[in-house]
């Protein structure tokens, strides 16, 4: 049976992550899969959203996501699915530029859509599913 508790503790223990505002986990690992909760553009030193527009919040959210993935022994290279929630879908093109700085081809499966409201009035929230360990390419 897979253990969930160790992974939750691992993700919370990383010093470079914002303190969780809710009772939820930042990430949960089951077997070789890590499930990231929605990641906001929170500054880890203040636990508040970074000042600025969607681009500023997106940059910080991607930094936070990197740190959560690393705390769960994974990385951007191992993300297989991402979901981008935007307060304004018109920001998608700018967010996509930042997205491509972190994800390389072949890109993970992705869904992006506009929502009515995000926690803390954030402008962006990102969820992801990643593999822990090495991904073997069987395409050749």
Name the features:
140 residues; 60s Ribosomal Protein L30, Chain: A; five-stranded mixed sheet; alpha+beta
**In percent terms, what proportion of residues is strand?**
25-35%
Instruction: Quickly count the helices.
Output: 3
**Ends distance:** 33 Å
Taken in chain order, the helices and strands follow as: HEEEEHEHEE
Low-confidence stretches: none
Which architecture does the CATH hierarchy give at level 2?
2-Layer Sandwich
Structural class: alpha+beta
CATH superfamily (homologous) name: RutC-like
Tell the overall outline. globular
The percent range for helix content is 25-40%
CATH class: Alpha Beta
Largest beta sheet, briefly?
Answer: 5 strands, mixed
| Radius of gyration over C-alpha positions, nearest whole angstrom | 15 Å
Number of strands: 7
Using the coordinates shown, work out and report the CATH topology: 60s Ribosomal Protein L30, Chain: A
- Give the total of domains: 1
Strand order in the largest sheet: 1-2-7-5-6
Write down the overall mean pLDDT.
87
Provide an overview of this structure.
The protein is of the alpha+beta class and 140 residues long. The chain is 27% helix and 26% strand. The strands form two sheets. A five-stranded mixed beta sheet has the order 1-2-7-5-6. A two-stranded antiparallel sheet has the order 3-4. Belongs to the RutC family.
Please specify the SSE layout and strand pairing.
Elements (H helix, E strand, L loop, with lengths): L4 H9 L13 E4 L2 E7 L2 E2 L4 E2 L4 H18 L7 E8 L5 H11 L6 E6 L9 E8 L9
Parallel strand pairs: 5-6
Antiparallel strand pairs: 1-2, 2-7, 3-4, 5-7
């Amino acid at each position: 049976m897979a253990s969930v508790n160790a992974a939750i503790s691992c993700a919370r223990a990383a010093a470079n992550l914002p303190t969780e505002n809710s009772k939820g986990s930042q990430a949960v690992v089951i077997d070789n899969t890590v499930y990231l909760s929605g990641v906001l553009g929170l500054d880890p030193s203040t636990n508040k959203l970074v000042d600025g527009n969607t681009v500023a919040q997106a940059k910080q959210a991607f930094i936070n996501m990197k740190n959560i993935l690393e705390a769960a022994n994974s990385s951007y290279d191992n993300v297989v699915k991402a979901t981008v929630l935007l307060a304004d879908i018109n920001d998608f093109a700018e967010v996509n530029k930042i997205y491509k700085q972190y994800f390389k081809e072949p890109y993970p499966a992705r869904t992006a859509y506009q929502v009515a409201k995000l926690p803390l009035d954030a402008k962006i929230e990102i969820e992801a599913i990643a593999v822990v360990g090495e991904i073997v390419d069987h395409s050749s």
